[in-house]
Amino acid sequence: METNLCVAGFGGQGVMSLGKFLADATCNSTDKNVTFFPSYGAEQRGGTANCYVVISDDDIGAPLGDVMDDLIVMNGPSLAKFLPTLKKGGRLFLNTSIVPDKIDRDDVTVVKAPVTEMAYELGNAKVLNVIMLGVYIGFTEVIDPAIVWETIEHKLASKPKLLPLNKQAFDKGLELGRSQR
User: Fold this and answer.
1) Which domains, from first to last, does the chain contain?
2) Residues 6+ apart with CB under 8 A from 47
3) I need a surface site. Which of 31, 43, 69, 108 has the fewest CB within 10 A?
4) pTM of the entire structure?
5) How far apart are CA 169 and CA 105, in angstroms?
6) Model pLDDT for residues 76-93, shown as the tens digit of each residue
7) Distances from the Cα of 148 to the Cαs of 37, 65, 179, in angstroms?
C-alpha cells in the first residue's frame, strides 16, 4: 500500500516540521519506505510552504505524485491550490480556524480541525502543526502514534521545556482525529 500526502500552508505554521516528523518516524521505526520532499515559497515565514510525504510498503517510484491520497491544508490559498490534486475518495484535513471555505467536493472525506484555535487555547500558536499531526495520525492510523511521539520527543530533546506542551498538543490532536473516524 502507498499513501501520498501533501501538507500545505504558510511559512511559520510548521508545515515542514509536520512532514519531517511523519517521514522520520516512518523511516526510523518501521520497515516501510518513505520520501520527504519540501517546497518553499519566495519568503519562508509568511510565504507559502508545502511538502510531500510518500509512505509505501514497496519501492517508491517518485518522491511526489500528481494525485494525493491525503491533503493537510493549513490556510485558504493552499486549499485553492492543492484541493484539485486530491483524488476521489481522498481525505482532506482542514485547519478550520482559518479556512472557513466550503468544500465543493462531495467525493472526499473532510476532517475538520480548528488547530490554530486549539493551539491558542494551549497557550502557544507554534504547536498547531503538532496538533494537526495528531489529528492525521489519529484519523488515518498510518503509523503507530507512540512511534510518532518518540520521534517528536527525540527531535525536541535539546529543548526539554517544550516537551509537555507538545505532548499535550499531540494528544489533543489524536483525540480529535480518532473522534472523526
Assistant:
1) 2-179 (3.40.920.10)
2) 10, 11, 40, 41
3) 31
4) 0.93
5) 30
6) 999 999 999 999 999 999
7) 19, 24, 19
